[in-house]
Amino acid sequence: MSKQSLPPAQYADLRAVFINTTLKPSPEPSHTEVLMDVSQAIMRAQGVKVEHIRAADHVLAPGVQPDMTAHGFERDDWPTLYARVKQADILVIGSPIWLGERSSICWSVIERLYAQSADLNGKGQYVYYGKVGGCIVTGNEDGVKHVATGVLYALQHLGYSIPPQADAGWIGEAGPGPSYGDRQDDGSRVGFANDFTQRNTTFMTWNLLHLARLLKDVGGIPAYGNVREQWDAGNHFDHPNPEYR
User: Phi and psi dihedrals of 49, rounded to 5?
Assistant: First the structure.
C-alpha cells in the first residue's frame, strides 16, 4: 500500500461557513448537521476557520432586501449572518429533503443571499465573486441531486464559483426509517459506513478547498468583462453591437 500523499497547499488562512437549513432549532439533533460535520472535520484538520450556523436558530424575515426591518418587519437576523458569510471564502449550504425539495429555510437563506447580490467587492465585481460554494443534502426519499441542482445553480448565479463535484448527500430507504447518523441496535451509526456518501463528501470538501486556494492566490476572478460600472460607462468588452454588423 502506498503512503498517503500530503496536501498540495496550505489552507489555514481560509474561512468556511456552513449554513444548516434543517427545520429543527437547537438543541434538537439534525441529521444534516451530522453529515456536514464530516466536511467540517476535514477542513478543520487543515487549519481552516470553520463556522456552523443553524438557520432555524435565527429570525430570517421573508424578502430579498438586505435588512427587512426597513420594510415593516420587527426583527431580522440576516444582516448579522451576512457579515459572517461575507468574510468566508467557502460557503456550504446543508438541507434536508422534504417532498423531494430543499427545506423552506434553505430557500429562505438563498433569497437572503440574493438580497446582497448587487453589492460589489473591492474590484467592482458582484460581492460573491471569488468565493466558492457547495452543498450537502440528507433525507429518506429521492431528491439529493434535485436539491443540489437548485442550490448550486442559485449559488453560481449569485457569483459563487462551483468546483467539480460540489455536492454530497445521503438518503436511506424510501419512506419512514432511520436517518443519517441514527444509532442502530448494534451501536453503529446509519450511513457512516456508506462508502459512496463518505467518498463524495470527502471529494467535495477537497474540491472546495482546492478551488478556494486557487482563487485566493490569484486574487479572485479577473475583473475584466464582468464589472457593472464599466459596462454602464460604455465599455462593453468586445460585445458585438448588432447595429454595426
Answer: -80, 110
